[in-house]
Amino acid sequence: MNGNLAPDNALLMNGAHRYPETHWHEIQRFVVGNEWDPKDLFNLADDVWEAWPYFTHGRPTEAARYRFHFGHLRSFLKPYVKWYCYQRLLGSTTRLYRPLARLSNALTRADTYLFEHGLSSLDDIASPPRLRRSLGSAYSPIRP
User: Taking all residues of the chain, what is their mean pLDDT, rounded to a whole number?
Assistant: First the structure.
């Protein structure tokens, strides 16, 4: 395991996911805490974000179309997905469109795969033994 991972007790999300410490400092607010977005519409740790005012064509009558849902994500990807969506909401210099609110749905299969295979950190995906199994005979270690 990577020595830069946050301590086991630093993350309470199902007690199973681990993050690089530098990542954890940035994404922990999407898992635990009481930080709200600048427009005071949603708590960053919530699984549903009411974000219609951020969108170019967002209207209260169509709020459901611009609602972010993260509750179905179960793997360690969840706070990263929330972080990305939040950055796009706050930092977009162009107009925001509804497909951003559907990003978590697009990642459902990857999230399910990671969860069902017990992959609980970035290290689990990129470990040399896992890469060898995944790449099979195409993998040849670099030798000096």
Answer: 80
Buried b (16+ CB within 10 A) or exposed e, 59-90: eeeeeeebebebeebbbbbbbbbbbebbeebe
Q: What are the distances in angstroms from CA 144 to CA 36, 44, 140, 141?
A: 52, 47, 12, 10
- The answer to whether 42 and 51 have CB atoms below 8 angstroms apart is yes
CB–CB of 72/112 below 8 Å? Answer: no
Which residues face 36 on adjacent strands?
A: 43
Distances (CA, A) of 23 to 18, 83, 114, 115: 10, 10, 18, 20
What's the CA gap between 118 and 99, in Å, rounded? 29
Higher pLDDT pick, 74 / 124:
74
